[in-house]
Amino acid sequence: MRLERPSLKWETEHIAYMREWDEDRMTPSSFHLKEDIPYAVYLEELVVKEAGHGNRVPNSNYFLVGDDERIIGMVNIRHSLNDYLRQVDGHIGYGIRPSERRKGYATFLLSEALKITDRLGIRSVLVTCNEDNIGSAAVIVNNGGVEDESFTEPHGNIVRRFWIER
User: Fold this and answer.
1) In terms of pTM, does the model score above 0.85?
2) Alpha-carbon distance 72 to 106, whole Å?
3) Is the pLDDT of residue 22 over 90?
4) Average pLDDT over residues 36-44
5) Who has the most CB within 10 Å: 22, 72, 94, 152?
6) pLDDT at site 26
7) Can you tell me the mean pLDDT for 130-148?
8) Short-list 105, 95, 128, CA closest to 22
9) Domain 2-165 belongs in CATH node 3.30.70.890
10) Half-sphere exposure of 39 (CA within 13 A, CB side)
């Protein structure tokens, strides 16, 4: 398995991954495709978003690709935190293809993402999950996460916050 940057090479597989997604909004949302936007335009927009323009911070996006050239998961790594990220989304957001969950891939994906935060010089990495996402909390703890104070969003969702010291 390896991390790969999004490119035209992955268009068909990205679309297949998204069709399998079982929620309205993909996690991480940077990989959500809109039907009316060509994939090349999506990639151009992703480059702009990664640069951190507007209210975004600089970030990097990767696919977790299996030996069979199938996308298993996706990860968005934020290079710094703004107030919102510090409370809700943290440095790293990741998701695993529904058919590939509960196979250890999320633990591997987060460990690979932490190697990238190391290269970026981020020594205290914040990773979050919703209170009801027990699997994700276990993945974070398995990668060294220590739980901090939770954050309650205005609509009542409770976000568990974990710090991983590098």
Assistant:
1) yes
2) 9
3) no
4) 96
5) 94
6) 75
7) 97
8) 95
9) no
10) 12
Inter-residue contact 82 to 44 (CB < 8 Å): no
Compute the distance between CA of residue 134 and CA of residue 29 in angstroms, rounded to an integer.
20
Q: Distance between CA 48 and CA 57 in Å, rounded?
A: 11
Which tokens is 36 given? 């009316």
pLDDT digits (tens, 9 = 90+) for 53-95: 778 899 999 999 999 999 999 999 999 999 999 999 999 999 9
Read off the pLDDT of residues 115-136 as tens digits, 9 standing for 90 and up. 999 999 999 999 999 999 999 9
The 3-class SS string of the chain reads: CEEECCCHHHHHHHHHHHHHCCCCCCCCHHHCCCCCCCHHHHHHHHHHHHHCCCCCCCEEEEEEECCCCCEEEEEEEECCCCHHHHHHHECEEEEECHHHCCCCHHHHHHHHHHHHHHHHCCCEEEEEEECCCHHHHHHHHHCCCEECCCEECCCCCEEEEEEEEC
Residue at 69: amino acid letter: E
